[in-house]
Specification:
CATH architecture: Up-down Bundle
Radius of gyration: 16 Å
Largest sheet: none
Distance between the termini: 51 Å
Structural class: mainly alpha
Order of helices and strands: HHH
Number of strands: 0
Number of helices: 3
Shape: flat
CATH class: Mainly Alpha
C-alpha cells in the first residue's frame, strides 16, 4: 500500500468513527431521558470508571492505555454535555 491507500483507509475509518460516535450519543440521550424520569444525576463516576477499566483491559495497542482513557473521557464528556442540554428543557 502507498500513502494514498493508507489515507483512504483512514478516511473510511474516520467516517465509521463518526457514525459510531453519533450512535453512542443517541443512546446516551435515551439514557438521559430515563435518568431524568427517575431523578438520577447525569454524572455517574462509577459507570465511567468501569468504562475506562473495560476499555484499557481490551486495548490491544498501539495506543497506550492513558491515551485510550483520554479519548473515552472526551467522548463521555461530550455525551454528558449533550444529555444535559437535551434534558434541561424537557
Amino acid at each position: 500500500m502507498n500513502i494514498d491507500d493508507y489515507r483512504q483507509e483512514i478516511d473510511r475509518l474516520d467516517r465509521e468513527l463518526l457514525r459510531i460516535f453519533n450512535a453512542r450519543a443517541a443512546l446516551a440521550l435515551h439514557i438521559g431521558e430515563i435518568k431524568k424520569e427517575r431523578g438520577l444525576p447525569v454524572y455517574d463516576p462509577d459507570r465511567e470508571r468501569r468504562i475506562f477499566e473495560a476499555m484499557t483491559a481490551a486495548n490491544p495497542g498501539p495506543l497506550e492505555d492513558e491515551a485510550i482513557v483520554r479519548l473515552f473521557e472526551r467522548v463521555i464528556d461530550e455525551s454528558r454535555r449533550l444529555e444535559r442540554i437535551r434534558t434541561r428543557g424537557k
